[in-house]
Amino acid sequence: MNIQIFGNSKSFDTKKAERWFKERRIKYQYIDLATKGLSPREYLAVKQKVGFEALVNTNCRAYEDLYMAYITPAAQEEKLLENPILFNAPIVRNGKEATVGYCPEVWAKWE
Questions:
Q1: Residue 70: how many other CB atoms lie within 10 Å
Q2: What is the enclosing helix (H) or strand (E) of 72?
């Protein structure tokens, strides 16, 4: 398994995901979304698995400040890659598989 957790340090779901993998002694790589974000290829791979709507945090202040609800889908994707704070956290990847949020039932199938 090659687990990557893209998350925010202040996100409770990110902390729960890290704890879930630690308790099972599964090694993972943590990537801070706020500083690193997702590369365009990683973004496309995750979007293909979970869909665009699952990736966007519509409840954050940046969503309103950037007028995400009022711009075209192409512009939304561009803004999302420019502003990683808009991503829902955590995004957990295992090779080509991916989840958004706290999903231990899916991660258990990866073991």
A1: 8
A2: none
How would residue 111 be classed by pLDDT, with cut points 50, 70 and 90?
confident
Closest alpha carbon to 100 in 41, 35, 56: 56
pTM score above 0.85 = yes
Other C-beta atoms lying within 10 Å of the C-beta of residue 85:
16
The CATH superfamily assigned to 3-54+88-110 is: Glutaredoxin (3.40.30.10)
The pair phi, psi for residue 9, each rounded to 5°, is -65, -25
Question: Under DSSP, is residue 24 helix (H, G, I), strand (E, B) or coil?
Answer: coil
| Number of other residues whose CB lies within 10 A of the CB of residue 48 | 10
Q: For residue 29, which of 18, 41, 20 has the smallest C-alpha distance?
A: 18
Domain residue extents for the chain: 3-54+88-110
